[in-house]
Automatic annotation (TrEMBL), chain A:
It is a single-pass type II membrane protein. Residues 36-55 are annotated as: Disordered. The chain crosses the membrane at residues 12-32. Residues 36-51 have a biased composition (Polar residues). GO terms for cellular component: mannan polymerase complex. This is Mannan polymerase complexes MNN9 subunit.
From TrEMBL, chain B:
This is Mannan polymerase II complex ANP1 subunit. Belongs to the ANP1/MMN9/VAN1 family. One of its GO terms (cellular component) is mannan polymerase complex. Residues 1-34, 399-475 are annotated as: Disordered.
C-alpha cells in the first residue's frame, strides 16, 4: 500500500537461506560424484572408460592417420619373452573369483605384453561379477608395477540360456547343447573383437581357474605347438579331510573307433558329448593319462580339447578356427574348435602332467 | 474555521523557501551505503573467491575429476587419467545393427582385400569419395597380400589424400592397412583365376586372406561389416543405406558386368549367390571331405537358381530372395554375424569354401541370408584371352575396313577434282574459242580467212584428254 513508485525492490534474503542453499548444493554435488564413482560402476565408469572409443558426432571431423600393420613381422616362437611377443588372455566370466585374479597377477610373463579380455553375460550375476572385476582392475591398473597393457571388458549381446550356473544344473546333458552353443558365441565374440594385428598368442583361461604355475605362458609356448592344453584338475578335501585332487576337464581326448562309429550313425545336428554315462565313447581322456614319471613336458596328440586353459597360436584363430556354436562333426565349442583347427591343418597337443586347478564348488 | 492559506502548507504545489518541514518529495543522495549491505557485499565476494578457488583446485589436483565433469557437464572428460587409458568397457548389445544405422551413428567396418590391384585403385577411391553414408562412421580395412606392383604405395598415397581432403565430410574413421603374404602361387590374371582346376585351392586361400583381415580389424564398436571388391565399376552411392534398410543379417546385391556390344552388352557376373538345390545336395554327398563345389563350371552341374539370372531390369530393386551361397563382391553383414564366429571357411565346409561356405555357415547358425535380384552393381569387364583374340581380329577387320573406306573416299575426291578441272578447262577453252572466233571474224572481216586457228583448238583438246587418262591410270 505504502510502496512508493519506482523499481520494485527485492525482498532482502535471509543469510540463513543462503547458507542452507550452499549446504544443499554441496550435498547434491557430493552425492552426484559419489554415485558416479563407486556404487554404480557398470554404467558410470563404463561411460567414462569408453568415452573415447564410442564414436559421437563431435568426433565427426577428426582426421585420423593411416595405420599400417605388417603381419609378416609378427613372430610366434618358442621364446616369446625374448621376442617380445604379445599375448592375449581371454576369459569368459560368469562369476568373479578373487583367487582367479590373484593367480593372474602372479603370472611372470611381462605384464606390459599382456592384454586381458573378459566377456560377461548381461544378468544379475554378471553385473556383480563386472563390479568386482572392475574394482580389481582399477586397483591393478593404477599401480605402475603390475599394470597390464590393456584390459577390455565386454558384455554379451545375448541372454545366457540358463538362469542357474549351479554345478548340477549346468552339467545336465539336455542343457549342454544350448549352454555350450551360448558359450561358443561368447568365446567367439570376445576373440574376434580383441584379436589385434600384433597378437602372437591367445591364452584361454576360464574365470574359475584358480591356480596355475606362474610361468604358464612361457611353459606352454616353449613346446612350440599350434594348440596346447594342460591338464585341468580340481583340489578338494577327501572324506578324511585330507587335501586331494581329482580330474576335472574331460573335453581333452583322443578319438576312439567307437566314438567315430557312433558319430557316423548320428543325425547331423546331434552331439557326441564326453563324460556322460548314457553315451559311452571309449575315447582316451587326457584327464586320466597322468603319467607316473611326472615328466612335466610329456606331450600327447589330442582330437578334442577343453577350454579351461588353452594356449593357441594367433595364426590358428586368424585362419578361421573358432568355437563352433553348432554341431560340427557332432562336436561343439572347444571340442569342435580342435576339429576345425584340424581341418585347417593345425594339430592339438596335450600336456597330461602339467596341471592347472579349477575352483571347487 | 481553519484558514485555507496557512503558511506551512503548499498552496501551489511548491514548498515555501523558509519552511522547516522535511519534504518527502525532495531527492536526497545517501551519504554512504548502510553497514549491513556492505557486509553482505563482502560475503558475496568471499563466496565467489572460494568457488573459483575450488574449481581451480579441481583442475589442478587429479582425483577430483568427477567434480569437474559435473561442473563442465561432462565436456571435460577424464580420459587423460592413466588408469582409464588402458581399460575399455563395451556392451555388445549396443552394436546390434539396425535398419537406420546412419541415424543411430552405427559404425561400419569396410573390408577390401587387395592383390596386384594398382590399376583399380583410382576407380575404387572415386567410389569411396561418393559414398553417402557418413564417412566418419566408416572404418576402412585393407589387406595387401602378395602384391608385385605398387598397390601398397598407391594405396597409402590415395588414403592420405582422402584424409587430408578440404571437404570436412570426406575423411574416414580409422584406417588400417594389413600387410600379409600368404605365398600364393596362383596368378591373378583372368585365365588362371577362373580356371576350374585352380578354383578349390584359390578359394581356400582367398578365404584365409579374408579371415586374417577381419580378425585383425573387427572391434567391439562395429555394428556392420561391409565387404567390397576393388574391381567394382559402377555402384549406387547410397549402396550402404540401401542394403542396410532391409535389416537382414547378411545381404548381397546382384552383380553383373557390362560387355562390349558384340558380346551382347551385359552379362551376369557373380554366380556365387544361389539357392540350394536337391541336385547339388546329392552331388555334395558323393564328393570326398575336402572337395569344394564351385559354381559356374560344367564339371559341377548343380541346377541351382542363381541370383544373377533372376534379374529383371525393370523389377523392384527392393525385392528380396532367400539364398544359401553368397558372392563376395559386395556383402553387407551385421557385425554380430562375424562376432559369433561365422567366417569364410578356408576348408571344405559342407563342400563349400570362402564366400559360399560363409553363406552355408551363416544359414547353419540361423542367420538370414538374402539377395536382391533387381538391385544391380556392375563389375569391371576384363576381357578373357579368347575375347582379346576375338577383339584383335575385330580390330584388324576394322582397320582394314577403315583403310578401304579411306581409299574409296580419296578416289571419289580425286574424281571430283578431275571433273572440276575439265569443267574449268572447258570454260577456258570455250572463252578462248569465243575470243578466237571473235578475232577471226574481225580478221575475216578485215583481211579474209586463215586456216591455222581451228587446228590449234583441236590439239589443245586432245592434250587435255590424254591428261585425264593418265590421271585415272595413276589412281
Amino acid at each position: 500500500m505504502a510502496r512508493p513508485m519506482g523499481p520494485v525492490r527485492l525482498r532482502r534474503t535471509n543469510p540463513v537461506t543462503v547458507i542452507i542453499g550452499i549446504v544443499l548444493c554441496t550435498f547434491i554435488i557430493y552425492f552426484l560424484s559419489n554415485t558416479g564413482s563407486s556404487s554404480r560402476p557398470t554404467t558410470s565408469k563404463g561411460r567414462s572408460i569408453n568415452s573415447k572409443p564410442v564414436p559421437k558426432s563431435n568426433l565427426a571431423h577428426i582426421r585420423r592417420d593411416v595405420q599400417r600393420f605388417n603381419l609378416n613381422h609378427v613372430t610366434i616362437t618358442k621364446d616369446p619373452i625374448a621376442n617380445r611377443e604379445a599375448v592375449l588372455i581371454l576369459t569368459p566370466m560368469a562369476r568373479f573369483y578373487q583367487d582367479y585374479w590373484d593367480n593372474l597377477l602372479k603370472l611372470s610373463y611381462p605384464h606390459e605384453l599382456i592384454t586381458l579380455g573378459f566377456i560377461i553375460p548381461k544378468n544379475k550375476e554378471g553385473n556383480a561379477a563386472t563390479t568386482a572385476l572392475q574394482a580389481q582392475i582399477a586397483k591393478t591398473q593404477k599401480s605402475s608395477a603390475n599394470k597390464f597393457r590393456r584390459v577390455i571388458i565386454e558384455r554379451q549381446d545375448f541372454d545366457p540360456p540358463l538362469a542357474s550356473q549351479d554345478e548340477s544344473e549346468r552339467h545336465k546333458m539336455e542343457n549342454q547343447k544350448v549352454r555350450r552353443a551360448a558359450m561358443s558365441k561368447a568365446r567367439n565374440s570376445l576373440l574376434f573383437t580383441t584379436l589385434g594385428p600384433d597378437t602372437s598368442w591367445v591364452l584361454w583361461l576360464d574365470g574359475d581357474i584358480v591356480e596355475t604355475p606362474p610361468t604358464l605362458i612361457q611353459d606352454l609356448a616353449s613346446h612350440d605347438k599350434p594348440i596346447i592344453v594342460p591338464n585341468c584338475y580340481q583340489r578338494y578335501k577327501d572324506d578324511a579331510g585330507k587335501p586331494a585332487e581329482r580330474a576335472y576337464d574331460f573335453n581333452s581326448w583322443q578319438d576312439s573307433e567307437t566314438a567315430q562309429e557312433l558319430a557316423s550313425k548320428m543325425a547331423p545336428d546331434d552331439l557326441l558329448l564326453e563324460g556322460y554315462e548314457k553315451l559311452p565313447t571309449y575315447r582316451t581322456l587326457m584327464a586320466y593319462m597322468e603319467l607316473d614319471d611326472k615328466e612335466q613336458g610329456a606331450e600327447v596328440p589330442l582330437d578334442g580339447v577343453g577350454g579351461t586353459a588353452l594356449l593357441v597360436r594367433a595364426d590358428v584363430h586368424r585362419d578361421g578356427a573358432m568355437f563352433p556354436p553348432f554341431p560340427f562333426y557332432h562336436l561343439i565349442e572347444t571340442e569342435g574348435f580342435a576339429k576345425m583347427a584340424k581341418r585347417l591343418g593345425w594339430q592339438a597337443t596335450g600336456l597330461p602332467n602339467y596341471k592347472v586347478y579349477h575352483y571347487n564348488e | 474555521m481553519m484558514s485555507r492559506h496557512h503558511s506551512g502548507a503548499y498552496a501551489n504545489g511548491y514548498p515555501r523557501p523558509n519552511t522547516f518541514e522535511i519534504s518527502p518529495h525532495r531527492f536526497q543522495p545517501r551519504a554512504s551505503t548502510p553497514a549491513t549491505r556492505r557486509r553482505r557485499k563482502l560475503l558475496v565476494r568471499v563466496a565467489i573467491a572460494i568457488v573459483v578457488a575450488g574449481l581451480f583446485a579441481c583442475f589442478v589436483w587429479p582425483g577430483t575429476a568427477s567434480f569437474v565433469s559435473i561442473f563442465s557437464l561432462g565436456l571435460l572428460s577424464s580420459d587423460t587419467d592413466g588408469l582409464l587409458d588402458t581399460v575399455r568397457y563395451y556392451d555388445l548389445s549396443n552394436v546390434q545393427g539396425t535398419a537406420r544405422g546412419w541415424e543411430r551413428e552405427e559404425r561400419i567396418l569396410l573390408c577390401v582385400p587387395l592383390r596386384d590391384a594398382e590399376p583399380h585403385l583410382q576407380m575404387m577411391f572415386s567410389h569411396l569419395r561418393n559414398l553417402t553414408y557418413p564417412h566418419h562412421l566408416i572404418d576402412l580395412a585393407f589387406l595387401v597380400s602378395d602384391s608385385k606392383d605398387r598397390t601398397l604405395d598407391v594405396l597409402i598415397e590415395r588414403l592420405e589424400d582422402q584424409q587430408a581432403d578440404e571437404d570436412p565430410k570426406q575423411p574416414y574413421g580409422e584406417i588400417s592397412i594389413i600387410e600379409k603374404d600368404f605365398g600364393q602361387k596362383v596368378n591373378q590374371d583372368v585365365e588362371s583365376r577362373h580356371g576350374f582346376a585352380a578354383q578349390a585351392s584359390r578359394r581356400k586361400l582367398m578365404a584365409q586372406a579374408r579371415n586374417w583381415l577381419l580378425s585383425a580389424t573387427l572391434r567391439p564398436y562395429h555394428s556392420w561389416v561391409y565387404w567390397r571388391d576393388v574391381d567394382v565399376e559402377t555402384a549406387p552411392f547410397t549402396i550402404l543405406e540401401d542394403l542396410m534398410r532391409h535389416n537382414k543379417d547378411i545381404i548381397v546385391p546382384n552383380v553383373w558386368r557390362p560387355l562390349p556390344d558384340w558380346l551382347g552388352g551385359e552379362q551376369p557376373y557373380d554366380l556365387n549367390s544361389w539357392q540350394e538345390s536337391e541336385t547339388a545336395l546329392t552331388l555334395a554327398d558323393t564328393l570326398d571331405e575336402d572337395a569344394v563345389i564351385v559354381e559356374g563350371y560344367a564339371e559341377y552341374a548343380t541346377w541351382r537358381p542363381h541370383l544373377a539370372y533372376l534379374r529383371d531390369p525393370y523389377g523392384d530393386p527392393d525385392m528380396e530372395m532367400e539364398i544359401d551361397g553368397v558372392g563376395g563382391v559386395s556383402i553387407l553383414a551385421k557385425a554380430k554375424v562375424f562376432r559369433s564366429g561365422c567366417h569364410f571357411p578356408a576348408f571344405s565346409f559342407e563342400k563349400h569354401a570362402e564366400t559360399e561356405g560363409f553363406g552355408k555357415m551363416a544359414k547353419r547358425m540361423g542367420y538370414s541370408v538374402v539377395g536382391l535380384p533387381h538391385y544391380v552393381i556392375w563389375h569391371l569387364y576384363e576381357p578373357s584371352v579368347d575375347d582379346i583374340k576375338h577383339m584383335e581380329e575385330m580390330e584388324k577387320e576394322r582397320v582394314a575396313k577403315e583403310a578401304e573406306e579411306k581409299e574409296k573416299a580419296e578416289k571419289e575426291k580425286k574424281i571430283k577434282e578431275q571433273f572440276s578441272d575439265t569443267n574449268s578447262q572447258w570454260e577456258k577453252d570455250k572463252t578462248e574459242i569465243q575470243n578466237l572466233a571473235k578475232e577471226e571474224s574481225k580478221k575475216e572481216a578485215k583481211a579474209g580467212g586463215d586456216a591455222e586457228k581451228p587446228d590449234s583448238k583441236n590439239t589443245k583438246k586432245e592434250s587435255s584428254g590424254t591428261k585425264d587418262e593418265a590421271k585415272k591410270a595413276e589412281s
